[in-house]
Amino acid sequence: MAGLKYKRVMLKLSGEALMGKKDYGIDLDVLLAVAQEIKEVHQRQVEIAVVIGGGNIYRGISAAAHGMDRATGDYMGMLATMLNALALQNMLERQKVNTRVLTALEMKELAEPYIRRRATRHLEKGRVVIFGGGTGNPYFTTDTAAALRAMEIHADVILKATKVDGVYTEDPMKNKDAVFLSELTYLDVLQKRIKVMDSTAISLCMENNLPIIVFSMMQKGNLLKVVEGERIGTIVRGGER
Going by CATH, does the domain composed of 8-237 fall within 3.40.190.10? Predict the structure, then answer.
């Protein structure tokens, strides 16, 4: 484990990150690149848990969900996260990485039910654990699911993978004058409504002093660099910097 800053990490992937240049769905080239990044870190004996959003799938069915009540729409989103979880599991297994998918929604033919002790045991045995189904409850995002599961498995850090290289004052894709923010406190994010993770997730991390690192997964090798402690991306933590 020499040279590694974090031993157990929670990787949060957005569903949109898997779309590539598609309007919705999964770009297999992107999925392969993500799997290879995870494999590289896994080979260094880092214990990795993953939470994936479902936006790439849900975007394709959002029109059908229009007008439905919030709870129904959220359950549809949870099912979308399971599609992504199974896709990532398949790609990782093809890279010879042992995985387990644990779900907050019971679907015993596809995945194991989420049990905290089982999840930590899988991590200790060197398996990549993929959490699907969000928290299992409507009105909570996959950001909150990532924060909650990170606390439960005692992760050292949440790694929020995005398409940009960190947090900016504005969307750098839309405004070239946006200023990069290398460090933020939890209160900065909450008070200034900076879009890092939703407020429930940030509050959970603040209460448990769990750092969040926002970085780009688009650059090869970035995940390993973060785990090794290299200062890339934006770190969100307590008041002392």
Answer: no
